[in-house]
Amino acid sequence: MAEGIEKITYGNMRDETAWETEAEDNGDRQYPSVMGEIIHNRPVLSFRWQQQNPSGDPAGFHPVKTHLAGDYNLYNVLAAVAAGLHFGIPPEQINDAISSYEPANNRSQLKKTADNTLIIDAYNANPSSMRAALENFTSFRNSPPDAPSRAKNRTPRPKAVILGDMLELGRKSRELHEEILSLADGCGFDKILLCGERFSAAGQQYTCFKTVDELNEYLKANPLKGYEILIKGSHGIHLEKIIGNL
Asked: I need a labelling partner for 8 at 20 to 30 A (CA). Which of 84, 101, 183, 204 fits?
């Protein structure tokens, strides 16, 4: 890094790879400027953060409940915290800004319809974000940890994933789509629907649709009810068009 430029760092306090060691400091462990951890992800992300404080003093933590679906958003909110602190924003204002943000752009969006609970993440997709979304969805629970015991003990709803093509992957596109399908297949989902020419070619053993219009016609004729549903795909597939049929 160029001399004179301030370095702002952030990391998961449960991940020691976030702790840098620099030779000029005689090997002493250097902690990120902001450290945080997930409190729970049921059904949206709650986390806590603190400024550099290796001792882990509970009094120094700031708990925040977000409206973001997906534990992979931890690093996004920690980046926002770090940026806010850099510009002198008080912690309380940072927390209020993060907790009041409600996504409405088909990114990490939790939506409950009359029939289903949806996680909508259909603005962009690549292999790493697709893996993160699938892995998060396997442990997704619609009831928060402080819900009444009756809600906690309720039989889990079936899970369905609706995946759209990952675009612009080049010559490895077929291989990368097959890898995602292999991961999804091992997650134990109750239903897998695929949309797009790439997934249709790679996953012929599943229910496939080459266009979102074909998928919409299927959903009208075979409505999903009582499901938790992950919707994930590149924006060019336009999976947002199916939301009205779920």
From this structure: 101
Is residue 173 pLDDT above 60, yes or no?
yes
pTM of this structure: 0.84
Give mean pLDDT, residues 32-44. 87
For residue 120, the SS3 value is strand
Label residue 106 left, alpha or beta by phi (over 0 means left) and psi (-120 to 50 means alpha).
Answer: left
At residue 187, the 3 state secondary structure works out as coil
Owner of token pair 């996680």: 119
Residue 196 CA to residue 167 CA, distance in Å, equals 10
The one-letter code for the residue type at 80 is A
The most distant pair of C-alpha atoms in the chain lies apart, rounded to whole Å, by 67
**Residues 115 and 226 sit within 8 Å (Cβ to Cβ):** yes
Which region among 5-19, 86-100, 169-183 has the lowest average model confidence (pLDDT)? 5-19
**Arithmetic mean of pLDDT, 51-68:** 78
Q: What single-letter DSSP state applies at residue 75?
A: H
pLDDT-derived band at 67 (thresholds 50, 70, 90) equals very high
Q: Rounded to whole angstroms, what are the CA distances from 141 to 99, 145, 152, 156, 178?
A: 20, 9, 9, 8, 27
| Distance between CA atoms of residues 223 and 160, nearest Å | 12
